[in-house]
Design a protein that fits this description.
single chain, two-stranded antiparallel ribbon, Dehydroquinate synthase-like, alpha domain, binds nicotinamide-adenine-dinucleotide, alpha/beta, 2 domains
C-alpha cells in the first residue's frame, strides 16, 4: 500500500501565449532585473528569433550583454566562461533563452556566479543544496524556444562533468526562474529533427513520472494530460512547424512533463544520460530510442496504469496497444528504432556496455523506475536497444 505522504512543488509564474515575448521588458521590471545577461546558444544567436527578442530590449533601452558559448549538453568550461561574463559586465540577472541547453546554462550562471564553492558541491544529492548562499542567486527569466525539457519551470540545471563523462544535476529551489515567457511563436522555426527529439523528451518526462512509484496524484494528473497532448499534437507540429495550435500544446506538454517529474523519472533517463554524456547525442532523441524497450521491461509493474492511461488517450489495446502507439509515433517522427540508428558507426564491446550499465544503475533517476534497475537489467535493455528487440520478442 502506497504511503499517502509526499512533498509537492509547483511551478512559477508563466506568461503563456503567442506574441507574449513582447512583454519581456515588463517581465524584467517585475523580476527586478535592470541589467540582464542574455544567455543563448551559438546556433540560436544567429537566428531571427534571437535578433527580434534583442530588439525588444533595445527598444525599451534595457542595457544587456549576450553570452552564447553554450554547447548542446553544456560543460563546465561553458559555465566558467558564462560566470566570468556575468561578473565582468556587472549584470544583475539572467535571461535564459533557448532550448534546455541554454536554459540550463543560463540558470546555472545566475546560481553559481555568486557562490564560493565549486558547482559540483551543489549536485542534487540529499540536502547539498543547503550549502549554497541563497542571497547570492541572481533572478532568472526563462524563455524556451524548444518544447521538450521543461527546464523553464524546473529548479535544476544539467551539466556534463567532463572528467567522469557524467551528466550531473545541480539543484537549488531558487534556480526556479522568477518568470517564464512561454511563447509558442518562438518555436515555429525548430527543424523537424529537433521538434521530434524535444517533443519525445516531453513524452518521456510525463510517462516516466506517471509510471514512477510513490504518491503524487497531482503529478499523475498533469502527466496523463501531457501525454495526451503529445500524442495529439507532436505529429502535427512535426508535419507543419508553423501550426501554432500544435506548437502551443507542445509547449504546455513540455512544462507539464517537468512539473510532473518531481515525482520521479526512470530507466529511460538512467540509460539515456550515460549515452548522452559519452556520445553527445540529443537528450530527447536518446530517450525516444529507449522508450519502448523500457516500457516493455516495466510491464509487470505498470500494466494496469498504462491501461487506464490508454483509455484516457483513446488508445485501444491496453498495454500492448500503448506500446504499439509509441512505436508508431516514433516511426512517424523518424526516430531511429535502435541505438546504432541514432549513433552512426556505433560499436560497443563488453567493457563499454558494462561501463554504461554501471553508470545507469547509479544515475539519480534509476530509483524512480517501477522495476529495480539492476546491472543485469541495464545490460539487457542496452542489448534490446542495440538489436531493436522488445522484451518478449524473439
Ligand atoms: P538544445 O537546447 O540542446 O537545442 C538543440 C538545438 O536546437 C540547438 O542547436 C539549438 O540552437 C536549436 N534550437 C533551439 N530552439 C530553436 C528554434 N526555435 N529554432 C531553431 N533551432 C532551435 O535542445 P533541448 O532538447 O531543448 O535541450 C537539451 C538539453 O536540456 C540537454 O543538455 C539536457 O541534458 C537538458 N535537459 C534539462 C532538463 C532540466 O530539467 N533542466 C530536462 C531535460 C533535459
Amino acid at each position: 500500500m502506497t504511503k499517502l505522504v509526499s512533498k509537492w512543488n509547483y511551478p512559477t509564474t508563466v506568461r503563456f501565449g503567442a506574441g507574449r515575448i513582447k512583454e519581456l521588458a515588463d517581465a524584467l521590471a517585475e523580476a527586478g532585473i535592470k541589467r540582464p545577461l542574455f544567455v543563448t546558444d551559438p546556433g540560436l544567436a544567429k537566428l531571427p528569433v534571437a535578433a527580434s527578442t534583442l530588439k525588444i530590449l533595445d527598444t525599451a533601452k534595457v542595457p544587456y550583454g549576450v553570452f552564447s558559448d553554450v554547447k548542446p549538453n553544456p560543460v563546465e568550461s561553458n559555465l566558467a566562461a558564462g560566470i566570468s561574463a556575468f561578473r565582468k559586465g556587472k549584470y544583475d540577472g539572467v535571461i535564459a533563452f533557448g532550448g534546455g541547453s541554454a536554459l540550463d546554462l543560463g540558470k546555472l550562471i545566475a546560481f553559481q556566479a555568486g557562490q564560493t564553492r565549486p558547482v559540483w558541491d551543489f549536485e542534487d544529492i540529499g540536502d547539498w543544496w543547503t550549502r549554497a548562499n541563497p542571497d547570492a542567486i541572481a533572478p532568472i527569466i526563462a524563455i524556451p524556444t524548444t518544447a521538450g525539457t521543461g527546464s523553464e519551470v524546473g529548479r535544476a540545471g544539467v551539466i556534463t562533468h567532463e572528467a567522469s563523462h557524467t551528466k550531473k544535476v545541480i539543484f537549488h529551489p531558487k534556480m526556479l526562474p522568477a518568470i517564464v515567457i512561454a511563447d509558442p511563436q518562438l518555436t515555429t522555426g525548430m527543424p523537424p529533427f529537433i521538434t521530434a527529439g524535444t517533443g519525445m523528451d516531453a513524452l518521456a518526462h510525463c510517462l516516466e513520472a506517471y509510471c514512477a512509484p510513490g504518491y503524487h496524484p497531482m503529478a499523475d494528473g498533469i502527466a496523463v494530460e501531457g501525454i495526451r497532448l503529445v500524442f495529439e499534437n507532436l505529429p502535427r507540429a512535426f508535419a507543419n512547424g508553423k501550426d501554432l495550435t500544435a506548437r502551443a500544446h507542445m509547449m504546455s506538454a513540455a512544462a507539464m512533463g517537468a512539473a510532473a517529474f518531481q515525482k520521479g523519472l526512470g530507466a529511460i533517463h538512467s540509460l539515456s544520460h550515460p549515452i548522452g554524456a559519452l556520445y553527445d547525442t540529443h537528450h530527447g532523441m536518446t530517450n525516444a530510442v529507449f522508450m519502448p524497450y523500457v516500457l516493455s521491461f516495466n510491464r509487470e509493474a505498470i500494466e494496469d496504469k498504462i491501461a487506464r492511461l490508454s483509455a484516457y488517450c483513446g488508445i485501444k489495446g491496453g498495454f500492448d496497444g500503448f506500446v504499439r502507439a509509441v512505436v508508431k509515433l516514433r516511426r512517424d517522427l523518424k526516430v531511429p528504432h535502435t541505438l546504432p540508428g541514432l549513433i552512426k558507426g556505433l560499436e560497443m564491446d563488453k567493457k563499454r556496455k558494462s561501463l554504461i550499465a554501471d553508470m545507469a544503475v547509479v544515475d539519480p533517476t534509476a530509483g524512480g523506475n517501477p522495476v529495480k534497475l539492476t546491472k543485469k537489467a541495464a545490460l539487457m535493455l542496452l542489448d534490446s536497444a542495440i538489436e531493436g528487440k522488445l522484451a518478449g520478442e524473439s
